[in-house]
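New to this. Please check this protein:
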Amino acid sequence: MLASMRFNIWFSILLLMPILQLSGFDEWLASQIYHVYGDWHWQQSWLLETVVHKGGRLLMIAVVLLMLLTTVVSYWRGWGNNISRLTGGYVCIATLTSIIAVSLLKRLTTLPCPWDLAKFGGDQGPVYLYDVFSSKLDIGHCFPSGHASGGFALFSLYFAARILFPKYQGDNKLNLWFLPGLCLGLVFGLAQQLRGAHFISHDIASALVCWTVCALIYKLFFARTIQLAYMPNALPVGS
């Protein structure tokens, strides 16, 4: 039931992304920010550019390096048990893979940033989701939101908690581990929207990619553990 509910939420958010863009809400929201000063006033803001953007990037590099170091040392020194060490490895791989997946998509998609559009001081026309991979258009280097993915990639912590704290399965306490990734992703995403770097649908796409990657790697890492958790009487194949 919980799995079905999570899928329904995921699918609803997936549908929300084209609705926001094709309805014009994306551009309307960006225009509300742009027309406050008639330009992207906060594009070079010390708080948004230096602290949240550049500082946020350094923060995520430090977090990932700390994750990697902790996981390597845990295997080297034999800290914890096999499950806890495997979970540490999962967090590292899922977090990095999520960020890389978004970065690769940015190199393949054609959607422009708000500040690239003619109506917002740029020199390009709008591009919509149905042309997101069009070979006739230039690469936009903007979709999904790269900076927000640094935060959303920490959705891996939620899946790690499902393994480390099995007694809380079905308990709302597990959802607290969803908050670090969600909050950091929203802060990074909002900062980039205010700077004119992304539309809100770009951030939603980034969150969906990160959630999907983390969920798939979770299934690959812990398939047997998940089976035993939900079917404790299941026997190994061939027994």
The chain has eight helices and no strands. The mean pLDDT is 89.
